[in-house]
Design goal:
binds S-adenosylmethionine, 44% helix, Rossmann fold, 308 residues, DNA polymerase, domain 1
């Protein structure tokens, strides 16, 4: 199971109360949502949005495994699952989904960005260089759209260099783009291991002092490009402020500096214009115990604001 990151902190900023409704825009396995639901019984609801249809199906499978009982308390496991409306969509359509579901009033919105442990370990979508899989990297699983393999095999060197530099903050972007373009002419690069091998071969042995796998930054860059992660975040934040109730909270957990900058700048701009109040002057990060128990939390940053 995916371990929800900064859970206590999210609950403290969202401050869910009985009967309040929340939107979880990157629903995943619903870890944060279930904790919110603990506090919102008997009638508080969650509108969950999740772009990965397999992830949605996994939630439904869990829901139907819970045994039916004659009295289902709203705070019991089944009661909590019943108070979730899960929609398979991209959070960039948040306002439309809220309207279609006639969902409200909304006391808070959470975006826990990125991918879950299941995506890395089991989804077979090519997110991890530790597994040999087709280089797809699409969260929505639609192979007919842009994939990481099509970027790697068809984009011009200058574009590859740009995304490696801009999205991956990779120092060796130009060297990597050149190597990929020369090798792909001999044989298409279609798997995670093919790409990871190429990268490993051209980087200096002491890359980043051995702290991260040499392919980490390129894989992140590809994922961001394929799923338009930065553009979607920029388009979603204003929609969140629109759908929130006055006084409603917005919490965003980011996992890289590009996402964090977008959230920080948006919160600052809205605060300057008197539309929201920043609740986290500095981003909240996990403590040593959380990082030890869940190493994937180490790059997480939480920022929160309230609609004025
Ligand atoms: C870090 S996980 C969320 C984990 C969740 N908070 C939990 O505790 O289980 C992020 C989830 O958001 C989904 N996601 C990422 N981008 C999305 C988008 N643009 N729209 C909707 N869902 C998205 C991913 O598929 C993934 O399941």
């Amino acid at each position: 199971m995916h371990v929800p990151v900064l859970l206590k902190e999210v609950i403290s900023y969202l401050d869910p109360q009985p009967n309040e409704n929340f939107v979880d825009g990157a629903f995943g396995e619903g870890g944060h949502s279930l904790a919110i639901l603990e506090n919102t019984s008997p009638a508080g609801k969650i509108l969950g949005i999740e772009t990965d249809k397999e992830m949605c199906a996994r939630w439904l499978a869990r829901k139907f495994q819970i045994p039916k009982s004659p009295s289902t308390p709203s705070s019991g496991p089944r009661g909590k699952f019943q108070r979730v409306i899960l929609v398979n969509d991209n959070f960039v359509n948040l306002k439309k989904v809220v309207k279609e579901k006639k969902f409200g009033p909304i006391s808070g919105v959470l975006l826990d960005l990125g991918i879950s442990s299941w995506h890395l370990e089991e989804s077979q979508k090519g997110f991890s260089f530790l597994r040999n899989e087709f280089l797809m990297m699409r969260l929505d699983g639609d192979k007919s759209k842009l994939t990481a393999a099509s970027i790697i095999n068809h984009w011009p060197a200058a574009e590859l260099e740009r995304i490696f530099r801009e999205y991956g903050e990779e120092r060796f972007a130009s060297k990597m783009a050149a190597a990929i373009c020369s090798l792909r002419n001999r044989k298409p690069i279609e798997t995670t291991w093919q790409l990871a091998e190429i990268i490993k071969r051209i980087l200096p042995p002491a890359y980043e002092g051995g702290r991260i796998h040499p392919a980490t930054r390129v894989f992140l860059a590809l994922r961001i490009a394929v799923n338009r992660e930065l553009e979607n975040l920029e388009r979603t934040l204003p929609q969140i402020l629109e759908v929130l109730n006055k006084g409603g909270k917005i919490c965003v957990i980011t996992f890289n500096s590009l996402e964090d900058r977008i959230v920080k700048n948006f919160f600052k701009e809205q605060a300057r214009e008197g539309r929201s109040k920043i609740l986290t002057p500095k981003p909240v990060t996990p403590g040593l115990v959380e990082i030890k128990n869940n190493p994937r939390s180490r790059s997480a940053k939480l920022r929160a604001a309230a609609k004025v």
